[in-house]
Amino acid sequence: METLHTWLHARERRALRVLGDCAADRRVAASARALSWCGEHAAVWLATGLTGAAADPARREGWLRGTALVAAAHLASMGVKRVVRRPRPRVEGRAPLVRTAGRHSFPSSHAASAGAAAVAFGAVRPGLGVAPLAALVCVSRLVAGVHYPSDVVAGAALGALTVRLGARQGVRPGAGQGVRRGVRQSGRRGVRRERGHGC
Fold it and tell me: Which residues form the Phosphatidic acid phosphatase type 2/haloperoxidase domain (predicted)?
């Protein structure tokens, strides 16, 4: 009898094959490589946060705190990888599109930093468009064939959780007000929507 783990693993490998087929298009493959490269070691998100801090003095503390939380999410994902030690996927007859910094797959550090950036920077500057880019970075890791879908989902969840926990702590009065206020307002809106729908 097929176990739940076996069933899920088979579905994940099937999803990887389907997404990997998209890389047959050179434009898709090039985009996946570029997005993966930008997300390596959270580079694009750290640069976004520091640029925001420099260009937006009114929200400087929020940008810097958000950047620190993105870095924290990335480091947390690396720590979990050392504990779980899940091997990266290998799809028969298909080589990964990109090289990886390590052998372990769960959770995706790209997804962790992307999820953290979407929540943190989205709270500091709503409408900036970080979330769509973060989603593309996450998908790029699947198209590149270096992560299972569950790696990406877990990484994004870890990143979002890191920001929400960090936003509640506060380093000092006035630090990161943009992040904390935005995250709290987002949470309150979610509660109101749930009450309105009654489910």
Answer: 64-167
pTM value is 0.79
CA distance 17 to 95: 11
Domain that holds residue 168: 4-197
Confidence at residue 79, expressed as pLDDT on a 0 to 100 scale: 95
**3-state SS assignment for residue 104:** strand
Write out the two tokens for 7. Answer: 């069933």
Question: Rounded CA gap, 77 and 170, in Å?
Answer: 22
Output the domain CATH number for residue 139. 1.10.606.20
For residue 114, which of 161, 45, 179 has the smallest C-alpha distance? Answer: 45
- State the helix-helix crossing angle for 130-143 and 109-124, rounded to 10 degrees: 170
> How high is the mean pLDDT of the chain?
83
Q: How many domains does the chain have?
A: 1
Query: In this predicted structure, what is the pLDDT of residue 199?
Result: 39
Per-residue tokens: 87: 């091997």
Tokens of 39: 């997300």
Kindly state the percentage of the chain with pLDDT values over 70: 83
Q: Which of 151, 39, 139, 142 is nearest to 84 (CA)?
A: 151
